[in-house]
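Appendix C. Worked example: Hydrogenobyrinate a,c-diamide synthase
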Amino acid sequence: MTIPRVVLAAPSSSAGKTSIATGLIAALTDRGLTVSPHKVGPDYIDPGYHSLAAGRPGRNLDNWLVGEERIAPLFLHGARGADVAVVEGVMGLFDGASHPSVEPGFGSTAHVATQLRAPVVLVVDASAQARSVAAVVHGFATFDPTVRLGGVILNRVGSDRHEAILREALGSAGVPVLGAVRRIADLETPSRHLGLVPAAERSAEAVRTVRALGAVVGSSVDLDAVLRLARSAPDLDARPWDPAAEVERVGGRPVVAVAGGPAFTFGYAETAELLAAAGAEVVTVDPLRDSALPPGTAGLVVGGGFPEVHASALAANVGLRTAIAELAASGAPVAAECAGLLYLAGSLDGEPMCGVLDAQAAMHPRLTLGYRAAVAMTDSVLAPAGTRVRGHEFHRTRTSPGAGPSPAWQWSADGPEGFVQGGVHASYLHLNWAGSPQLASRFVAAAARARAGAPA
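Step 2, the predicted output written as C-alpha cells:
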C-alpha cells in the first residue's frame, strides 16, 4: 500500500519535535489534506495535540509494546483514508529501548522509520549553534545508511542573520533545509511533573496553540517540499491491522465503559477498537462530570492520566465513586492501570477515592519510568497466571501497599505489583492491547458473563 509519509526526528529530546510536528499536521490540514498523525514510543500526551491538529486520532507506533510485526500494519490501519502521514519520533533519532532483552536502538525513531520505509526530517534546535549545525546534520545523515535523512527543519532560529549562517553552513551537508522556525516563547506548551499538560486539560487554550503552531509552521516551512519528500516513500508490503482478526467475538454485546475526560487522557485508540471487535458496546464515562455509570455497564476500563491533579474534583463526585465500588463488588470486570489504580484506591493524597482497593496512594518525589517485561501472577479478567506481556511504567506516585494478597504482575526482583480481587485487575503497568489482543477477548467474555449474572 502507498501512503505518503514522513518521520520527524531530532538529535535529542527537547529540540521542539512536538511543536513542529503538531504545527506541520495543522498546516497540512489547513491546506485541505487529510493527515494521519502518529507518535513513536508509548507517550500518550503528544498524540493528543496531534489529534487536535488533524481531527482524527493520534496513534502510537511502539515496537516494545506491540511487536515488530505489527508496526507497519498498525500504521496502515491508522493512516487509512489519509492523504499523508506525519510520524513524530521519540528522544534522539537513534535512542531506543534500554532493556537487556533487545539490541541497542530497538524501538528508536530510526527503527520505526526503516520499518515504514519513510524519509526522515531532522528537527534541529539551532538556538545555541551556528556553523556547527553542519557537523551535527552530517553525522546524523551518515551514522546509519539504512535511515534516509531527507531534510532539516531549523528550530528556534534567532534572526535573519542567524538563519543565513545556518543555511550557508548546511549548503555543503547534502541535506536540504526545508524550513526555519523562529524562537516564539508564546507557543511553548506548558509542562508539569510528567511532561506536557495534556491537550484535553487545556481545551480552548490548546486549540488556540495548535492553530498558532499551524500558522507558524505553514509560513516558515516549505510544505510543498515536505509533501514531495513524503510522496517519495515507496510502497509498504503489509496489510492494515484488523482488530476483528485479533480477537474472538463474544455474544450478548455487553456494555463496557472506558474512562475519559481531562483526568483520564492516557489511552490507545486500539483498546476501544479491540473491545468493540470482541463484541462489546464501548461507551465513555467522565469521572469528573458523570454522576453515574452508563446504563447497563457490565465492565469498566480506567486507563492512565492525571487523577492527582484532579483529586478534589474526583473525590467530590460521590455518585460515580459509589457506582464504581458497587460494580466492582458485584464481580463485574474492572481493568485499571496507573491512574485507574489510584482512582480505585482508598485515597489519593488524602482525598477519598473509590475505595475498591485496600491501598492508599500519594505523590512521590521520584519518577518511575521504563519498559517492563511482566508475568501475570494471578488468574484475572485480563489474563491467566503465567501470561507474559510487555508494558511500561510512567508515574510519580506510590501506593501502600504496592501489591495485594493476589498481585497482578511481576517484572523484577523487587517483588510483585498490583492487585487482583474478584473481577478487578489494577496495576501501574500500561499496556497497549494491540500487542496482547487476547486481553480484550478475555475481558469482554467476563463482561458478558457479568451481564448474564454469572461470575466474571
